[in-house]
């Protein structure tokens, strides 16, 4: 009996253990599944939040038919399913795409990066704010510049790690509806829709226009700008309101971004274009964009850019030459300065700006007062070879200032520069001597001296010149690559209650 009782007790204990073990296993498996599901859900949400992004470009409530019209773009890096996109009006849930009329660019129920979303849905009241949610949330408030009946949203994206509080953004306009407006009847507003931003109209006509606007841009981020047109108030700004500096006295400016052909175009408005001479000259990567490359390893190559003669280059007692250069030592054993030196810019029989064999800058010119050649000896400032450097000289008789990569030295060099009728050259000296070996980019020549502060501003930013503003050199912020600009193709109009 005692043995039977023990057997029964053992059986009961075994059953209890089996049941407990099964329950534990079930709980364990269930908990693992929950953890795994939670991890998957968390990972999906995290991925969505990191990659998905929609920006509202414009919306409009039509008061006559009580309809909301909205345009947005997927400017993230992954496709977004339309039924994941949620629309709120005045912070009230309106519906998901599918419940409301959402159409994407390909109508495949997926909004790919760069594609547009269009929404047209009934609404019985004006929308003070609209929110589209897809991972990140984008909200657009309806604020308006008074007296302007129409506007377009401009999306500016900065893909660099640098942020700016006053970036000069060029906006190219090709839409005939906008171009039909008087250029003085437009306005630019910042992201709140009402804070006016300084702008300058470079050119405007039926075939196209370009506007420069000064705006903050975030690092690796987007900003909306609003272009209003057909306004009843004229607004005009000067380039000095938009750019960092406006320098008068520009004779010629060569940004050398053609990267093809055999002509270097002058952007100053004076049309002093240059032509390639010789076989050892072509295009290469520049400090900004492309550059002219001259492979003059000896004094016999003599490949350079030739510019037709002009009396405007006869500057007398004042001038400035500036450029980005990447000079390379010549492959020669000769010690003659005629062979080893490299000329940046010269005017036949009048003057030349040279980097000697050690990279030291010096200036030589024909003195019209004495009939002799004047020149300075090598200075302590220099530009090492095989890398880009900003070099400039500014002559204001009798002082000559050399500016290399933010450093400056000043010497005296009396005399008046001669005034022959000879050609101008990029990359070779006054009599076919000292051909340049390396690359030249962003070269400009002025009839006036430029202060050290302004040269430093150009060095740390970038210049701009245009035939639509002849004789002027503008200084602007610049990132590489520059921001991308998208102008909405749909007009937003001012309506009742907005």
How would you summarize what this structure contains?
This protein is mostly beta strands and 498 residues long. It is built from five helices and 37 strands. The chain has three domains: 54-142, Sandwich (Immunoglobulin-like); 150-242 and 483-487, Immunoglobulin-like; 247-476, Sandwich (Jelly Rolls), CATH 2.60.120.200.
Descriptive keywords:
Immunoglobulin-like, Jelly Rolls, 14% helix, 3 domains, 498 residues, mainly beta, eight-stranded antiparallel beta sheet
For the record, give the distance between the C-alpha atoms at the N and C termini, rounded to a whole number.
Answer: 95 Å
CATH topological fold name of the largest domain? Jelly Rolls
Helix content: 10-25%
Structural class based on helices, strands and sheet pairing: mainly beta
- Rg from Cα: 33 Å
- Indicate the overall shape: elongated
CATH architecture of the largest domain: Sandwich
How much β-strand is present in the residues? 35-45%
Q: How would a crystallographer describe the biggest sheet?
A: 8 strands, antiparallel
Arithmetic mean of pLDDT:
83
Uncertain segments: 11-50
What is the number of E strands?
A: 37
Please give the count of helices: 5
Number of separate domains: 3
Q: CATH class of the largest domain, please? A: Mainly Beta
Oligomer description: single chain
Layout of helices and strands:
Elements: H1 2-51, E1 54-62, E2 67-74, E3 80-81, E4 86-89, E5 92-96, E6 102-104, E7 110-111, E8 116-122, E9 129-134, E10 136-141, E11 150-158, E12 164-173, H2 176-179, E13 187-189, E14 199-205, E15 208-217, E16 221-229, H3 239-242, E17 245-248, E18 250-254, E19 263-264, E20 274-277, E21 281-285, E22 290-295, E23 304-307, E24 318-327, H4 337-340, E25 342-347, E26 351-355, E27 361-366, E28 373-375, E29 389-396, E30 399-404, E31 407-412, E32 424-426, E33 437-446, H5 452-460, E34 462-464, E35 472-476, E36 484-487, E37 492-493
